[in-house]
Structures are given as C-alpha cells and as structure tokens.
Amino acid sequence: MVSIEWTGFANLFLTYPSPLILGEAVCLFLYFQEKGKKIHPSGIVGKLLTFGAPGVYSVYVIHVHPRVFWSAKIIALFRPWDEMGCIQVFCAMLTTALGIFIACILLDKVRQWLFRLLRVEKAADRVSGWIEKKVLRILAD
C-alpha cells in the first residue's frame, strides 16, 4: 500500500489553497447564495446573518493564526478529549467549534467598534487618496 505522504499528494487534499478545498468552498458559497435568497432579512436568521456575516473572514484569520489558536495553552485545553468516548468527543467538538466561532465574531465586533472610534477608515481614505495622487502624477510624467 502506498502512503499519500509518500506520493507527494498530501498537500493537494489537506491544505487551504488545495484545489479540493477551493472546490468545496466554491460549492458551499454557491449553495448558500441560493439558499440565502429565501431568507427574510427581518427574520431571526436574517438578523443573525447580518450580524455575523461580516466577521466570518475574521474567524478564519483569527483561528488559524499560530500565536492565537495553536499556542500551548489552547492545545492543553484539548488534552482531556483523549479520555472521552466517541459521542462525548463529537459533542465537545461541536461545542468548541461554535464557541470559537462566536468568540472570533465578538472579537471582530470589538475591532470594528475600535476602528470606528479611532476613525481608521477616514485615515485610510486620506492615505489612499495621497498615494493615488502620487501614482497619477508619476504616470502623467
């Protein structure tokens, strides 16, 4: 039997930029895009999506960052799972995933609030305008 590691195809199936994962992401996007048309914006699901959707990318960025999620303290929290049964691990996994998702969304909401408080968007617009003027001046010469 040939190991997938030996053939060099492990990264093809298991990493974020792999074609398989990209295909899954596109399929999920298209599926939920179609399902989203049937969700009423003022309903509970619509309000939850409006609240959480802007922070979903932040969940990805925060939870895969090595200093945030993969620290020794976080890994130590999962050690008791070695002692659990299959159903307990499944429940713990769902609860942990939901907890991480909610924590990251709330952390992103705090970031958004701080950015509004510090007027980061206005400062970024000014810097962007300045850079655009310089580039246009260089291109005009």
Core attributes:
single chain, 141 residues, mainly alpha, 2 domains, extended
Summarize the topology.
Layout: H1 4-7, H2 10-14, H3 19-36, H4 44-52, H5 56-64, H6 72-77, H7 86-117, H8 120-140
Helical region count?
Answer: 8
Helix and strand content put the structural class at mainly alpha
Mean pLDDT: 81
Strand runs, count: 0
Global morphology: extended
Pattern of helices and strands: HHHHHHHH
The biggest beta sheet is recorded as: none
What is the end-to-end distance? Answer: 65 Å
Structural domains: how many: 2
Please give the radius of gyration in angstroms.
Answer: 21 Å
- Proportion of strand residues: under 5%
Q: In words, what does this structure look like?
A:
The chain has 141 residues and is mainly α. It is built from eight helices and no strands. The model has no long low-confidence stretch (mean pLDDT 81). The protein folds into two domains: 38 residues; 96 residues, no CATH class.
What would you say about this model in short?
The chain has 141 residues and is mostly helical. 74% of the residues lie in helices and 0% in strands. The protein has two domains: 1-38; 45-140, no CATH class.
